[in-house]
Amino acid sequence: MPKTSSTPLLRFAPSPNGPLHIGHAYSALYTWQAASLLGGTALLRMEDTDPERCKPEFAAAIIDDLHWLGLDWPEPVLVQSERFDIYADAANQLRNAGLLYPCFCSRAEIAAAATESDPDGAPFYPGTCKHLDRGIQIERLERGDPVQFRLDTERAMALAGMLSFSVAGPLVTDRPQIRFARPEKWGDVVLQRKGTPTSYHLSVVVDDAEQGMTHVTRGRDMEAATDFHVLLQMLLGLPTPIYTFHKLILDDTGKKLSKSKGSQSLVDLRALGWTPQDVRQHLGF
């Protein structure tokens, strides 16, 4: 059940699929600063739903880096890989409402059929399997074909009507402004894959509600995804927190830092002699 809190609650929710870099440090420090300005508390959450990439040693290193930066949080830390049954229940709620359908398309097939892109630049799913004959669906599911389950966003929006959410300025204490959500720009998003009962989009809205998040701080690269999260919150009967979008830390080429690109980690900086004060000063805290 969603929690309600009279105290502002925020969270920093890294994926333990590699070491933290300076961009993660900025996001963490920003979140703890926001919690302080609001007179609230910042929580730590481990978003480790990808068993192939997320490792316990990365989670331990994240905790070590955050403590090194001088940050702390209430225990216990919520760990998403321990909550798959809860996410599956949320997906079943959408399935029972007739809002999920199986999709058997490969990434290559989607890329070949797509004529536009989603806000992240990925091929926009053209709805190939949305109207697949029910008998064929059952046959392929029973055969064990690779499958993912997508939200029928058009139908979901017909149920939801016009959606809006509140966005606070960079200081988070600024008066929030109302923004209208446009989840249709994402199309039919994957919420489950065979063998994985959740996706980032599904688990994040479930956990934000269960932990009673009043405010969510996230980078501007997540601004567009928030529109889709607001839709899921409405469909699942969950509250919508106030959102704040902070700047991104970019590399020398002007691109976002990334674990997958091997961006310099906090461990690397520590080995070079950086102190927590150096990191804070470098990032403007």
The level of helicity is 25-40%
Q: Unreliable runs, pLDDT <50, ≥5 residues?
A: none
CATH architecture of the largest domain: Alpha-Beta Complex
Strand order of the largest sheet: 1-2-3
Write the element-wise H/E pattern from the N-terminal end onward. Answer: EHEHEHEHHEHEEEHEHEHH
**Radius of gyration based on Cα positions:** 20 Å
What is the arithmetic mean of pLDDT? 95
User: Distance between termini?
Assistant: 36 Å
Proportion of beta-strand residues: 5-15%
The CATH superfamily of the largest domain turns out to be Glutamyl-tRNA Synthetase, Domain 3
Count of alpha/pi helices: 10
Biggest β-sheet strands, sense, barrel:
3 strands, parallel
* Total strand segments: 10
Outline type: globular
Instruction: Using the coordinates above, name the CATH class of the largest domain.
Output: Alpha Beta
**Classification by helices and strands:** alpha/beta
GO cellular component, one term: cytosol
Pfam family, one: tRNA-synt_1c
Keywords: Aminoacyl-tRNA synthetase, ATP-binding, Ligase, Metal-binding, Nucleotide-binding, Protein biosynthesis, Zinc
Domain Glutamyl/glutaminyl-tRNA synthetase class Ib catalytic: 11-275
